[in-house]
Design brief:
By secondary structure, the protein is an alpha/beta fold. It has two domains: 213 residues, Medium-chain alcohol dehydrogenases, catalytic domain (Quinone Oxidoreductase, Chain A, domain 1, Alpha-Beta Complex), CATH 3.90.180.10; 131 residues, Rossmann fold. Strands 3, 4, 5, 8, 9, 16 and 17 form a seven-stranded mixed sheet that branches. Strands 12-11-10-13-14-15 form a six-stranded parallel sheet, covered by helices on one side.
Length: 352
């Protein structure tokens, strides 16, 4: 089968807004799945990469790694999916599948470099960058395609492919569950998922926010307690009480104020990506044998596990559905925090 030209939304440089363009998808290999994209979430990473803020973008760039779609074609050796299946694609579309990390289902840490869903190099077509979900369709190796639970709303499921696994993975890795008191710092796209998932795991959830306006929202999402992080008295009342904290803040903040809330042997894990380094006081961690850690999405097996967990507990993201033509406005609103809690593009509007 020949490569295919399709419609997409992207940009050719960091200073350009996203606009309609034509891109080329590679020909289907024997282990590939072709997917018509129905919905695509808008992640803050999309904005960072489209604007080359991490200095690694390959142009032209078509963002989008929270993809829900329908299988329209399969390669001759594909055994996991059939035409018509509803599937998902997250942040990864390939890896070497041979290194120890890949064998351990940690493809996100592939020793030879995982292939990102967009702005990466496609090993099947080295002259083409990978293009993301702001497009009509995508071609993906079957090992990187995910089953979507039938009971979940498709549009609201899209953000699970990034925001869901980014929060599920550390919560699972650090043993969050009944009897554990867990802090969630920041109530945005990642934080609101962390509250829902930690609560479903059986933990006592304490949400931290800089805005009193979010108290009611945090409780609605499932938080047992809400703390105004700007209030020293409220923060002090939680000193030494938390087993685990997931920090979803992508702005500069005082990380030591949260480390001080951990119990002995507690861990704080960063999933947000602040623009500036965080300054950790040595005494924050040595007093109480506390750990500061980070986490990056999850492997494919764990991502499927997360989707199944969300299906069992009927967990989806809180979303605002938008037309493709409004994505630039959505980026600006995202910068202002004006979204509850994730934009999702109705990809049917791409052809408007």
């Amino acid at each position: 089968m020949d490569s295919t030209n399709i419609l997409a939304y992207g940009n050719a440089s960091a200073t350009e807004k996203l606009d309609q363009m034509n891109i080329t998808r590679r020909a289907l290999t024997s282990h590939d799945v072709e997917i018509e994209i129905l919905y695509c979430g808008v992640c803050h990473s999309d904005l960072h990469i489209a604007r080359n803020e991490w200095h690694s973008t390959i142009y032209p760039c078509v963002p989008g790694h929270e993809i829900i779609g329908k299988v329209t074609n399969i390669g001759s050796h594909v055994g996991k999916f059939s035409v018509g299946s509803i599937v998902g694609v997250g942040c990864l579309v390939d890896s070497c599948q041979e290194c120890q990390n890949c064998k351990d289902d940690l493809e996100q840490f592939c020793e030879n470099g995982a292939t990102q869903t967009y702005s990466s190099l496609d090993k099947h077509s080295p002259d083409l960058p990978t293009f993301g979900g702001y497009s009509e369709s995508i071609v993906v190796n079957e090992n990187f395609v995910l089953d979507i639970p039938a009971n979940l709303d498709l549009a609201a499921t899209a953000p699970l492919l990034c925001a869901g696994i980014t929060t599920y993975s550390p919560l699972k890795h650090w043993g969050v569950g009944p009897g554990k008191k867990v802090g969630v710092v920041g109530i945005g796209g990642l934080g609101h998922m962390a509250i829902k998932i930690a609560k479903a795991m059986g933990a006592h959830v304490v949400a931290f926010t800089t805005s009193e306006d979010k108290f009611t929202e945090a409780k609605r999402l499932g938080a047992d307690e809400v703390v105004l992080s700007k209030d020293a008295e409220q923060m002090s009342a939680h000193t030494g009480t938390l087993h685990f904290i997931i920090d979803a803040v992508s702005a500069k903040h005082d990380i030591n104020a949260y480390i001080n809330l951990l119990k002995v042997d507690g861990t704080i894990t960063l999933v947000g990506v602040p623009d500036e380094p965080l300054a950790i006081s040595p005494f924050s961690v040595i007093m109480g044998r506390k750990s500061f850690a980070g986490s990056l999405i999850g492997g494919i097996t764990e991502t499927q596990e997360m989707l199944n967990f969300c299906g069992e507990h009927n967990i989806t993201a809180d979303i605002e559905l938008i037309d493709m033509q409004n994505v630039n406005e959505a980026y600006e609103r995202m910068l202002q925090g004006d979204v509850k809690y994730r934009f999702v593009i109705d990809m049917a509007t791409l052809k408007n």
